[in-house]
Specification:
The chain is of the alpha/beta class. The protein is 44% helix and 20% strand. The chain contains ten helices and ten strands. The strands form two sheets. A seven-stranded mixed β-sheet has the order 6-2-1-7-8-10-9. α3 packs across α4. The radius of gyration is 20 Å and the shape is globular. The N and C termini lie far apart (65 Å).
Length: 260
């Protein structure tokens, strides 16, 4: 009965919002939402669904809870400004058709942020953006390109206005930006890397790996970059002695592949 109650809730949420909760890891999502439901005093998901349909604050809380741990557009916005105004400016001197990779892209906010910036710099046409993650559920949600206001709070207003359409409590990304990103399942620790990248973005991921795994990955990222290409890492992921990986700092949290 409890499982059927939850599955009916999943179907109702999909019809109401377009969000497919079945793409999330069921045990984690069910545990998270059961905790929230009980906290609000509802004994079944049927009763909880009726309540969130009638109470916008409950609905917003539900959206916030179900998307916990999801990334944001323009997270640490200052670093994206450096990418746009300094890094891409240099890279585009060599070629205006950039080969880019967002590694461990989660639910798509980072590769789509890159696509928005490339569009604004007139670099999107001809450039490629590969976005990979090991989690097929996250990739499926990324392909939906449907986001909460919370995940867009750092998005510049002009880009929000031009490339998102509000649908109730959610925002849908325009097909033009969505189609610029290719999503693919990929295991950083096990699968081979392609080469010749101008830009690799891998942020807030390395912190979950051992030192040995980090060192191996930095070598692999370096080999995947063309000389002069750039690795963009997270704000807690400074690389110590980057020269051992044939990398050199170009700006805070940006590392350039050294010329041979």
């Amino acid at each position: 009965m409890e499982d059927r109650d939850f599955m009916q809730f999943v179907a109702q949420v999909k019809r109401k919002t377009g969000i497919d909760l079945s793409l999330y890891k069921e045990a984690q999502m069910k545990r998270r939402l059961t905790s929230l439901r009980n906290k609000r005093g509802f004994s079944s998901f049927a009763a909880y669904f009726e309540a969130i349909c009638q109470d916008q604050s409950l609905f917003a809380e539900f959206l916030d809870r179900m998307t916990i741990n999801v990334s944001e557009f323009f997270r640490n916005r200052g670093r994206w400004e450096v990418l746009e105004q300094k890094i891409l400016l240099r890279l585009s001197y060599t070629s205006r058709k950039l080969k880019c990779w967002s590694a461990a892209c989660s639910t798509g906010e980072e590769p789509y942020t890159l696509a928005l910036i490339l569009k604004r710099k007139n670099l999107l046409t001809g450039s490629t953006i590969l976005a990979t993650d090991i989690d097929e559920g996250a990739l499926a949600r990324a392909k939906q390109a449907l986001y909460t206001a919370r995940s867009l709070q750092e998005c510049p207003p002009d880009l929000l206005r031009l490339y998102f359409v509000q649908e109730g409590e959610l925002y849908r990304l325009s097909p033009e930006i969505k189609q610029a990103v290719t999503f693919r399942k990929h295991n950083l620790l096990a699968d081979p890397f392609d080469t010749g990248y101008d830009l690799i973005i891998c942020r807030n991921v390395m912190i979950y790996f051992t030192e040995q795994a980090k060192q191996e990955l930095y070598h692999k990222f370096s080999r995947a970059l063309r000389p002069g290409g750039v690795l963009f890492v997270g704000s807690t992921e400074q690389i110590f002695q980057p020269q051992q990986y044939q990398l050199e700092p170009e700006d805070t949290f940006f590392y350039r592949k050294m010329e041979t």
